[in-house]
Amino acid sequence: MPRVLTTAAVIRCVHSGTFLVTASQHTLTVDGAPVLLLSDLLTATVPDCTNTNAAAGQAPCVKVTTVSAGGSRLLSVGGSPVALDTAKGTSQAVPVLPVAWQVSSAGQNRLSTD
């Protein structure tokens, strides 16, 4: 079963940049870390993306543009689905890739769903 993401999760772009994601809720926590909602992933930024060779037409990921998978069908907070470690999607990077980011670690191993 997929694990629920918390603010301790590690999410990286394909260029090894680390996502900064802020939780919009603090009602549901795991080991003291707020659980992330699927909508929280859409506000993530990527300050350290290495896709920066402008001469080659590259542009860094900077922010998430889509979430194509990884929302729970069973667990929600305030009507919004929580994010799972199966989450993935695209970012603002150039060139645009079909999957530009994914979860490396859920940030916890106690809460699973779906």
Describe this structure in words.
There is one protein chain. With 114 residues, this protein is mainly β. Helices cover 4% and strands 38% of the residues. The chain has one helix and seven strands. The protein has one helix at 38-41; strands at 10-13, 29-30, 33-34, 45-46, 62-77, 80-91, 101-105. Strands 1-7-6-5-4 form a five-stranded antiparallel sheet. A two-stranded antiparallel ribbon has the order 2-3. A hairpin with a 2-residue loop joins β2 and β3 (33-34). The mean pLDDT is 95.
Query: What is the count of DSSP helices, taking H or I runs of 4+ residues?
Result: 1
Helix content: under 10%
| Oligomeric composition of the shown chains | single chain
Helix-strand category: mainly beta
- Global mean pLDDT: 95
| Low-pLDDT runs | none
The Cα radius of gyration reads 14 Å
| C-alpha end-to-end distance | 6 Å
Proportion of strand residues? 35-45%
Could you give the order of strands across the largest sheet?
A: 1-7-6-5-4
SSE succession = EEEHEEEE
Secondary structure: number of strands: 7
Shape: elongated
Question: Quick recap of the structure?
Answer:
This protein has 114 residues and is mainly beta. The chain has a five-stranded antiparallel beta sheet with strand order 1-7-6-5-4. The chain is elongated, with a radius of gyration of 14 Å.
List keywords for this structure.
114 residues, mainly beta, five-stranded antiparallel sheet, two-stranded antiparallel ribbon, 1 helix, elongated
